[in-house]
Records
---
Amino acid sequence: MVTEGQQTASAPDAARTFPKGFLWGSATASYQVEGAAAEDGRTPSIWDTYARTPGRVRNGDTGDIATDHYHRWREDVALMAELGLGAYRFSLAWPRIQPTGRGPAVQKGLDFYRRLVDELLDKGIQPVATLYHWDLPQELEDAGGWPARATAERFAEYTALAADALGDRVRTWTTLNEPWCSAFLGYGSGVHAPGRTEPVAALRAAHHLNLAHGLAVQALRDRVRADAQCSVTLNFHHVRPLTDGDADADAVRRIDGLANRVFTGPMLQGAYPEDVLKDTAALTDWSFVRDGDLRQIHQPLDFLGVNYYTPTLVSDADGGASHTSDGHGRSEHSPWPGADRVAFHQPPGDTTAMGWAVDPTGLYDLLRRLASDFPRTPLVITENGAAFDDYADPAGQVNDPARIAYLRGHLAAVHQAVVDGADVRGYFLWSLLDNFEWAHGYSKRFGAVYVDYPTGRRIPKASARWYSEVVRTGVLPGA
């Protein structure tokens, strides 16, 4: 469980020491690692369908095998224990538990997660379960997907099944991972499953994901142990203006509204931001928001999950919008409905293999903002990491100094935010394993552990050993 630690002292000899009780972990997602796509009753998710559609995923890669975590979970948990991780954040595959998105659970699917959780607990590793990391059952997409209100209702039913099966073991729950991606990349730009390009559908999806979150929190509270914690994970965009001009400041406001406040508004404050409703009024009157929805969405949370990789740089666009440098994949269709006068720019500095700028100051600034905006809500970094072009040398070693530098810089930013008053209680490295990186297939390696895909062999990278020492000591070493 995420517990409240003592504030870190700012004295020089304690400047790199994290608070007592700070939670250290790593993370994965079901479709990216499990494989076993058609075993034990599992049916296709939207990502199975999307990956099998020609031209959608690089090299035609799919998650059919992924890293074969479904069969190699004991080995993977042993790796976690070897690295000394305090927690493992994983996601449940909805179509493995409830293949059609309706009706009773498949016990073989639940049994996989029961075994995984029991093994984690046996090794002293806290299980952190995410209910949804993008693998919607295809049958629910065929019935309308997230733009349809019924999907939120089905999600509450699925949550109840998972909570009834695992609520006695799992103490930390996350409802949704990055609903912005599900809504705006899945239904706006189409670069994620299900690949639709309908701006109004993207806004409807955002609302129904918000509603699904609120209904799921209520289902969890009714079923899980009294000391359980409920959260949501958002991929916050730290948005900066290209210049100091008023027009660029307004571009920041627009993107911040669509990226961040369209979720934090209803989830944490009980209302959609008025400027977001106004910015999108030419597309929709938001009549899909029914009486009582905001009350359902606005549920108390025990902490807020924060995913951060890189900042976002924008400006006003006199000649029309440009989203090709927003870091979310190329498409003729924008994931930013209502932001018709915003241009995105590549931030300066070094980049990762994803083309994302390496800038820890964005994480520091984001944490300070969240601490100011939501001072009573603890924060946990639920994803942070980087992809680089890793390879195993002839001796079978994987040296990744660029990743170590990335992690050192970002952990220093987290530490400084804590020193300056942000209530940050944990950090999860993305990712435990190299895996299926969505539309990039297997071409991008985020893992602390290298995976040789033809054999499935796991090789801890130098960064894994470095991170393991930070976890063991709670101290961030200097450069």
---
Amino acid sequence: MLESATPVTPVTFPPAFLWGAATSAYQIEGAVREDGRTPSIWDTFSHTPGKTAGGDTGDIAVDHYHRYRDDVALMKELGLGAYRFSVSWPRVQPTGRGPAVQRGLDFYRRLVDELLAAGIKPAVTLYHWDLPQELEDAGGWPERETAYRFAEYAQIVGEALGDRVEQWITLNEPWCAAFLGYASGVHAPGRTDPAAALRAAHHLNLAHGLGTVALRSVMPARNSVAISLNTSVVRPLSQTPADLAAARKIDDLSGGIFHGPILHGAYPQTLLEATASVTDWSYVQDGDLGQIRQPIDAICLNYYTPTVVSAADADSRAPRADGHGESAHSPWPAADDVAFHQPPGERTEMGWSVDPTGLHELIMRYHREAPGVPLYISENGAAYDDKPGADGTVHDPERVAYLDGHLRAVRRAIADGADVRGYYLWSLLDNFEWAYGYEKRFGAVYVDYASQQRTPKSSALWYGRAARTGTLPAVESAE
């Protein structure tokens, strides 16, 4: 339930709180064959018939590669203080090996300079799912070598931008990269091998550790290195032992598999036992867990909706309602005994329930999991069926209410003692939404894909006012 939009006391955030928006390279840049860039796994996947809605690709996307100056000017006009973007690995290091292509790095140098000139803090994500295709051809994330290639790439980008960018994120949502990419196959590279997905998860963890060391070897000590996790907020359908066990299994597979080694230097024993039928974990080599558990400067959290599970009915043939796309193959290895349930109430265009309490719960979990480590919300937002009105304006009151409710949850967490230092709305622009193509609009800024015209929605104006004042406006105040 959303709280009242008109509280007696205004909801005000700490003065240093960062108000930002986020994007990723393949979703917005386009220019996939320019300046030395070679295909990523998402180029290959999106050009494979039947893999994306309408056969859509990121070939042009929203043409940010050529329109970045206008997009930065728009961010400045809205009053944003920070911008989280990702670097396209195959634009910088086309084969995933060897020297950088300076033309590719120059784009990001120009973008960072433009942001800084506009008074907007850049935050760089090194990996938002666009693995160079040549590395996938060599085995991809299930292969250990890919982690070492990532560290080399991290060092290249750190050397190029580390003098001007202070906030760094190694990986975005490694859960999606491992389990949607290699288990259910609804994301690139589209493989359906649960054992490979678990290997991929470990090598993504290793990449984070190696990449963190590589970044710190070439950057000023003031810079912050973090990772963006989309740990599920898992809720059992009931308090029966069977449902509680189901929730523990999914919690291990979505969160413990990453924050276990990253924060605590160990995989949960319950995870190892639950997945023993799929893998023996022999690819975890001596020294790996120490390498993964690097001191971390911040934890970034992505949240959209909670997950409700129970023990599966042996006779049930219902589709898996986990919100992660349709596939005959599960993204949850060794969890066929778990059923997923759609919570009641309001939903977004993705079919995801609107529940800000889950964001508060997630923040407080990591406040306890990693005491003393600053937190950022690196993604939060919603897709709605946005359309321009007769006057050309785009009103999206549902998104305004969504943002208001979730930002209130962030503020409650701060009041409860959590050190949350910033919030990045997903997304700045309507864009290529992975397997959903251009059907789902998450942007605060409407994009007419034919003309590439940008139109700030009501939510962008509302959020911009919040960013400028540090106080949540009334939800009807979007002009």
---
Amino acid sequence: MADPKGFLNHGRELAKSRPVEERVRDWNEVYVPGSLLPIISKQASRCMDCGIPFCHNGCPLGNLIPEWNDYAYREDWAAAQERLHATNNFPEFTGRLCPAPCESACVLGINQPPVTIKNVEVSIIDKAWETGDVAPQIPERLSGKTVAVIGSGPAGLAAAQQLTRAGHTVAVYERADRIGGLLRYGIPEFKMEKRHINRRIEQMRAEGTRFRTGIEIGRDLKATDLKKRYDAVVLAVGATMARDLPVPGRELKGVYQAMEYLPLANKVQEGDFVAPPISAEGKHVVVIGGGDTGADCVGTAHRQGAASVTQLEIMPRPGDERHPTSQPWPTFPMLYKVTSAHEEGGERVYSVSTTHFEGDEDGNVQWLHLTEVEFIDGKLTPKPGTERKIPAQLVTLAMGFTGTDRENGLVEQFGLELDERGNIARDDDYQTNVPGVFVAGDAGRGQSLIVWAIAEGRSAARGVDRALTGASELPAPIRPTDRALMV
């Protein structure tokens, strides 16, 4: 273990954030560069050598957290990154973007603030890139088998890297103009700078993975033609069908899905636009949806110079602390969370539902009408007399996703079966009803977290490798039916 008295001698200390007035004027990550490394050894020492590390169960990747905490405490960065990469292809992504269910399951968290696992993770991998310890892992020999991976989000990239390292010839198809999926165009730059994606892509290129951008399977290339070209196909196309809000006025100009709004802001940072085609500048912005995507819209609106930002959530405000019976340790609790975007301003309104939008004579949205709601007999019901309207010149809908894209023809062309929730059905090896076609990530699981996506990609890669060669030494951290530990 690290320091036997570490959790007694040191309190929880997080990465320092840049001042709000500074960071809202740029798109760089919100944390002070280099602020973690001086404190991370002490933070890693708080790991308790608890005997049964429940953090392993909290993380679907099965990260070897106590081991790399010990190496980080001793500042053995080479060993730490080796342990980190043993279970996670992209720790610089998860260390920045994951909500850290491992910390919710930390044994220390029973009666103290848990270990800063996420901060230790990102410190190890950033140090590894700095020292050159992250190198391409080129396979010693090729299998002669070819695999197409459709989609370049975390699930697709993880599957592609694992299969390439197993010796297969892998091509990743992405319908967008750049590799990365939602990591590229759904996650704002201030949460993760895209240079982290770029250098992983270069590592994967050096290992032999090939990338094909601007090709949408089902439209630009028929799924049946793709299947003829490759020995196996992995579908990692995500759950990109956004949940809509069918209320009067939805058709007004200025009401957009979050994934219509956020990618344009990222394209400005990529140099595609001087200014985003959809901008919050000078506007009263309303974000409908209280999750992470909604918070991304809030932070983006701040940086674009919104006149005001209001975030609406239909559910009641979560509690500040874990409830001992309804959300017991080590389950992942639903708590009130203040993200960096919320620190920057704006108003958060809970237990409200949008009734309709109101526009001007030119068809531009100007007002959002809402009502308070409450649970009656287990159903959310409007509270009489609570109707009101708020200014809204830009509205973003961030209410989650309902399944994989059915409009491009991919599902029908492959002849894929769906499960009862509208996800692509698969067996224990992640194979669909079509032999040689596998599915990983949100397309098979439904909307989920980045750690689940990477775990699915790694597990699906094992299924593909077994199908192609008869056996596999690739790890499979989860089964398709595994779910997060929740009450």
---
Amino acid sequence: MSTTEETKPELIPTKIWKCRNADCKAWVRDEFAADSQLCPMCKGPMLRSIRHLPAVVNKIKRQPKPKNEYGL
């Protein structure tokens, strides 16, 4: 199986939070990070960084339509 430029995703600079603990390899994209900025794995402090990652398409989940009393 050969790799071509068409199959490789385009990498873009992305803001991330990574764990300061050298033994912990956890990181999270800034857009998905919690407000507390604690490592989700070891609960240690995190610091800002940048990684070159493929773009993520955030899909909006649709809210279910409210059903009336007849189930329509």
